[in-house]
Amino acid sequence: MAWLLHRACCLKVFCQPSRGPFSSGIARAWSGGPLTAYMPEAVAFAGSRDHPGLYTVSVEQVDEFWGALGRNRLMWINPFHSVKDCNLQQGWVSWFLGGQLNVAVNCLDRHVHTAPNKVALIWEKDEPGKEVRVTYRELLELTGRLGNTLKRQGVKRGDRVTIYMPPCPLAVASMLACARIGAVHTVVFAGFSSEALADRIRDAQSETVITVNQGLRGGKVTELKQTVDQAVRVCPLVKRVLVSMRTEQKVPMSELDVPLEEEMMKEDVCCEPAVMESEDLLFLLYTSGSTGKPKGLVHSQAGYLLYAAVTHKYVFDYHDGDVFGCVADIGWITGHSYVVYGPLCNGGTTVLFESTPVYPNPGRYWETVERLRINQFYGAPTAIRLLLRYGDEWVKRYDRSSLKILGSVGEPINTEAWEWYFNVVGDARCPVVDTWWQTETGGICISPRPSSPGDEILPGMAMRPFFGISPALLDDKGSILTQNNVSGALCISQAWPGMARTIYNDHKRFLETYLMPYPGFFFTGDGAYRSSQGYYQLTGRLDDVINVSGHRLGTAELEDIVNQHRAVAESAVIGFPHEIKGEGAYVFIVLKKGTDVSQEKLSNELKELVSKKIAKYASPDYIQVTKRLPKTRSGKIMRRVLKKIVENKADELGDLTTLDDHEAVEEIIEGHKRLLQEEQGQ
């Protein structure tokens, strides 16, 4: 691709650091030796002789802990005067007040100053063996040209830029170019439909979209430009679409469309970085909620970047020279924090994975590990469960001796998958970090590591809160559960630098969703169990959100789409345990009177409708037609009853005194049995 063939030139490096990347010279993992080799800032923390001591400082001396890390690990144009001003009760969160910096400078320029030819990105293209390495100097040039192109096209500080691209160096450069000039990026997963993309473009009020002509994934071509064309037809605010050429295939270009590489080559590689306040917007990222409308979560500059970098370093024991392999798409928060911002802020080498776990065969991940010599591998339980079914042979035929840490993300990992991951993939020598966090938290909040040397790791448990994270379990009445061996709503009792600041243009919804359910606490929406040893285990969502293959999907959002079908009068969507995806979607349908449509035709049409409106991953697994839904006398659907039926626990329906029509439940139970029998008979 032309944009990787830049002439060598002398680059001006902004905000030159007084030292190299902080990770160099730091011990690989704390092994019981001097704590200051593991965390240099610990020299200033009284009483922090070990990991529990460091953790205590991080939650009890918050300003001292994060102030020291903020000063030492970020490059500031002007230093901050206050570490934080946060009040969860009132709903405001600010970190590193008065500080000014540029995120792109922190991720690029300072590393170009010390190691310009170090590899920043390894682009693992869809076809194995065709990887492309991009150095820090090349990525800075790419970012500079793109930043200047955006400015010439009229993009200004604070403008929202929608990025609809597969994982590739230009997608990373697009994110960093926005950060460099002070624009706000909003990356949309390139598997979303044109309607889902249009919703996000409109909500963000984007005037600029960056995309590619086509995507390549799993040996298949996806017409991404075509999807963007359909989306922008209903987005009158869009003024320009910058189109990169991922393949050689020419695509129709309209008056809105700008050939990206062509324009970039006209620009200089040096792009003056904007001076950004710590709390200026860095990016929006949309996630499903319990209502039908996706919410654009806002992350700001300094706090997010620091938290992504510190969690990347300590959870994965990242050391200078390691190759970090996070196989998440950049369209999700995992890709933002652990493909782009965390590794690049740390001066690391990070892998961009364009393909799928099973292309061209189920050994793809492990062949990539062998060829790229990946040291830390971070993937989703869904993929691990899928690969487990293909057996050990596909893993064992490849050399995985470079691996040091294995991680899982997106949903809790079940014990069987965890043990296979640990014993087969990691040869029983690589710690498995089952990480819990969310788009809202910005970075990992609970994870088995970091910890004291030799501390146990238990299968399927996130276990230990990260530095600065103070979890609390609350009961239905809002009382704090202080004892162990107890379950409750997982909340976080104090602010941390990486947390989302608001929902774009809807702070009221942010307060109602996260801060008002349990005043004084951040409510995660998840339930958790705290073991007798004080370890945390996630037990699932407490709101009407299901987790399909690590992607959050609001049941209300899905119901809203299903109800658009001409034959559907009413619907209810229930999540159920799925062997591969973690959770699947089970849809109950009540048809309009007089409707004559076969079950097969209806199922096919509804699956197609959901795929078109959201994405293929959201397509329902089961669709059951019933005469009526179980409701209370006030007309509310009794979802807990439907959930028990779907989980084959019809004998555990509980209190049904408020149920309006008991016959409806019996009909649904019988219909569910028939549907399962039909499935098994196929």
From TrEMBL:
The keyword Zinc does not apply. It catalyses: acetate + ATP + CoA = acetyl-CoA + AMP + diphosphate; propanoate + ATP + CoA = propanoyl-CoA + AMP + diphosphate. One of its GO terms (molecular function) is acetate-CoA ligase activity. GO terms for cellular component: mitochondrion. Keywords: ATP-binding, Ligase, Lipid metabolism, Nucleotide-binding. Residues 54-107 form the Acetyl-coenzyme A synthetase N-terminal domain. Pfam families: ACAS_N, AMP-binding, AMP-binding_C. CDD domains: ACS. Residues 557-636 form the AMP-binding enzyme C-terminal domain. Residues 109-501 form the AMP-dependent synthetase/ligase domain. It is an enzyme of class 6 (ligase). Its EC number is 6.2.1.1. One of its GO terms (biological process) is acetyl-CoA biosynthetic process from acetate. SUPFAM superfamilies: Acetyl-CoA synthetase-like (SSF56801). Belongs to the ATP-dependent AMP-binding enzyme family. NCBIfam families: Ac_CoA_lig_AcsA, PRK00174.1. This is Acetyl-coenzyme A synthetase.
